[in-house]
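Hi there,

I know you've been waiting on this one. I reran it after we fixed the sequence typo, so this is the corrected version. Both the input and the resulting structure follow.
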Amino acid sequence: MEAETSSAAAKPRRVLRVLVVDDTRANRMVLLAFLRRMGHIALEAENGRQGVEIFERECPDVVLMDVMMPVMDGLEATRRIKALSSDRWTPVIFLSALGADNDVVAGLDAGGDDYLVKPVNFTIMTAKLRAIERTIELRERGDAARRRVEAISDTVLDAIVTVDRHGVIQTCNRATSKIFGYDAAELQGRDVTVLMPENDAAGHKLNIDRYLATGESRIIGSVRELTGRRADGSTFPIEVSLNEMLLDGQPHFVGTIRDISARKLAESELRKQAERLQRYHDAQQEETRLAREIMERQTHLPSLGDPKVQYSLQAAEHFSGDVVACARSNSGRLYAMLADATGHGLSAAISVLPVLAVFYGMTRRDLPITQILAEMNKKLRLTLPVGRFVAVSLLCVDESDRHAEIWLGGMPDLLWLDRASGSVRRFKSTHLPLGITDWDMREGHPIIFDWPAPGAFVLYSDGVVEAADPRGAMFGESTLVDILNAAPRQERVAAVGTALASHLEGFPAQDDQSLLLVDCD
């Protein structure tokens, strides 16, 4: 343990300057806290244009870029950043809720170096940042090596070897001795093939003889990557340029030789890092696919096919924090629920699973709403961390008596639409969402409603009425009611979905959208 501590102290972790570009303040705060906890310096911008300005001024090492943002989106911002950093490598990692193949391709085509789908897996993010630290160090090492080689070239410190038409070494500079391990005196008068592996010697002689005979050669005046051989017999990659000169009317050849071992090592390490990053990405994609399949199996049950029920569920991300459920009790009563967990994505979807399990387990036994809600609250209090809760609309319908029990906790109004007149009756939430406090039996009293004429109950999440178009105008409850009243009875939910898509004008929804209709004749 002490040896490890001593080693870590001898070689401290690299501190990166990381620019976070995201228009959602909560997302920025989470990422900034995560980066600072890793010991990095975190910068922030709330849109693409501001991100480009900060990049140009602060020159960060890494950019974490959202895609969908006002003023300037992440794709355009990335193009501009890449244009500004043409002389150095600054990795841009997209963090987006858009995870389709074409979205990933668009991000990489815009210049992104990686693409992570929100919610971000911080374990993978940590590994990626550490990989980037190593890659930047390798690049800097490679850049430093290139600068050293350029300096050597400027001061004639590359190996420079002159040979006659027969390939015999005439002169060589000090760098030749340093690179190949020979004394200058040892090389003069020896065949130049002593500096190359034996299997390359025959080809070199053939190229020179062809050039002297025909005047045509692909090796004269060009730069090639070959293999050199040192005095100890070890081989290494070299970059060679060969040119002709005349001395005393006789052709001679000048070879400028550069050792490119460090560059090749850096390139090899970069390829390995790229492969690791790709494996991380592929693993995340597979985990997302598996999690989605598991969630689908638990949320789309056959009971949702009840002829009295119509529903739609549109996730803002890969996973929906909204859930709809419906079940018939043994006596024929219809229970319907729409639940909305805090947050979005996989964490929200997992949060709502205890509610689903209780709902389907207890409604079959025809248990009272109060008892069902108490059990849901108990499960959530046991399973959810502080700050997580689930808003619920719960409905129990007895069609034989035209009688309904309604309970709302933290949800938008539940609506009753009279089929004949189109009039609306609203039932407002008077209770807290589940999972916040211990259950109080006073919280469980439902609203009693006996419908006078055929109609439908409408349950929806706030993602429906608060869906905003590109100008910020919300969809609204009145629009929802108008569409439901105007559409044919079996096409009402589909009509709302079409209207929402038209309202958003192709922009992604910022929240999960769920709608549940229960017909009552």
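Quick highlight: The domain at 12-151 is CATH 3.40.50.2300 (Rossmann fold).

Best,
R. S.
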